[in-house]
Write a structure and sequence with these properties.
It is a single chain. The chain is mainly β and 176 residues long. The protein has a single domain, classed as Electron Transport, Fmn-binding Protein, Chain A (Pnp Oxidase, Chain A), CATH 2.30.110. Strands 2, 3, 4, 5, 6, 9, 10 and 13 form an eight-stranded antiparallel beta sheet that branches. The longest helix is centred in the N-terminal third of the chain and has 8 residues. The radius of gyration is 17 Å and the shape is globular. The mean pLDDT is 85.
């Protein structure tokens, strides 16, 4: 059993609090569920490799995402702006979602408009990891979107910082 620095038994609440001190961007992972766009808020997202370009999302074992996304499926990472905080909240809740939130579709993959950026990737491997599944995917499309402030998650709350990037697009089919 893991122990904390003072040698007491592992405390999952303390673990969550310590991990909350690591600031992350806020994303909505979007995918197709029964032919319709679906999504969930995820801050456990990372780039893995440049060659080949790989990304990874970590998804709770109880998530319905696991019933719809498999090896060969595509998902999109929509990196949210601070103005999209309500969207992050909508897709984080298990309750009713605001169906007025519009998606566009790129190569059969739903994207949230007005996001900072999008990564469209095809799943190449799924691994169980504790109470989560890790979805490793090869990047097929990259889009830089809105010039806006990013939405950040830190200590269990949404936060904002100031950063701006130019708008660009890339596709594995077209190159630069």
């Amino acid at each position: 059993m893991a122990q904390t620095a003072d040698s007491s038994p592992f405390d999952p609440r303390l673990f969550r609090e310590v991990m909350g001190r690591f600031a992350t961007g806020v994303t909505v992972v979007s995918y197709m569920r029964a032919g319709a766009p679906a999504g969930m808020t995820v801050n456990a997202f990372m780039s893995v490799s440049l060659e080949p370009p790989l990304v990874l999302v970590s998804v709770r074992g109880e998530s319905s995402f696991n019933d719809h996304v498999r090896v060969g499926s595509r998902y999109a990472i929509n990196i949210l702006t601070e103005d999209q905080q309500h969207i992050g909240g909508q897709f984080a809740s298990q309750g009713t979602r605001d169906h007025s939130i519009a998606f566009s579709v790129l190569d059969g993959t739903p994207l949230l408009g007005n996001s900072l950026a999008h990564v469209v990737a095809r799943v190449v491997d799924v691994r169980a990891a504790g109470d989560h599944f890790l979805y490793l995917a090869e990047v097929e499309n990259l889009l830089l979107g809105a010039e806006a402030k990013p939405l950040i998650f830190f200590t269990g709350r949404y936060k904002q910082i100031d950063a701006h990037e130019p708008t660009m697009q890339w596709s594995a089919r077209d190159g630069w």
